[in-house]
Amino acid sequence: MKKIKWLVPIMVVSAVLSVLVLRDHPDVTFQNKVLITIGASLLSALIGFILLKEDIDKVDPKPKEERNS
């Protein structure tokens, strides 16, 4: 569940950036733009999943409880 908190924003940012880049290319058909955007999102999620393998607690550490005795 912790990875999803990071992978979904990565996918959204990747999709938005691919739409912005493809907006300036009228020679690419709409269907190809959609396929490129989906592919970019999935590839960025895959790369993020690999890079966030075990280090997710380092990115989003749990707060430590302090005991007052």
Can you tell me about this structure?
The chain has one domain. It is built from three helices and no strands. The chain has helices spanning 2-22, 30-51, 56-59. Helix 1 runs antiparallel to helix 2.
Low-confidence stretches: none
- One letter per element, helices H and strands E, the order comes to HHH
Q: Please compute the radius of gyration using only Cα atoms.
A: 18 Å
What's the shape?
Answer: elongated
What is the percent of helical residues?
Answer: 55-70%
Distance between the termini: 34 Å
Question: Helix/strand/pairing class, anyone?
Answer: mainly alpha
The total of helices stands at 3
Question: Major beta sheet, specifics?
Answer: none
Oligomer: single chain
Percentage of residues in DSSP E strands: under 5%
Give the total of domains. Answer: 1
The residue-averaged pLDDT reads 84
Number of strands: 0
Protein name: Histidine kinase
Keywords: Membrane, Transmembrane, Transmembrane helix
Organism: Chryseomicrobium palamuruense
Transmembrane segments: 6-22, 34-52
Structure in a nutshell:
This is Histidine kinase. The protein is mainly α and 69 residues long.
Topology diagram in text:
Elements (H helix, E strand, L loop, with lengths): L1 H21 L7 H22 L4 H4 L10
Could you list some keywords that capture this structure?
3 helices, single chain, mainly alpha, 69 residues, 68% helix
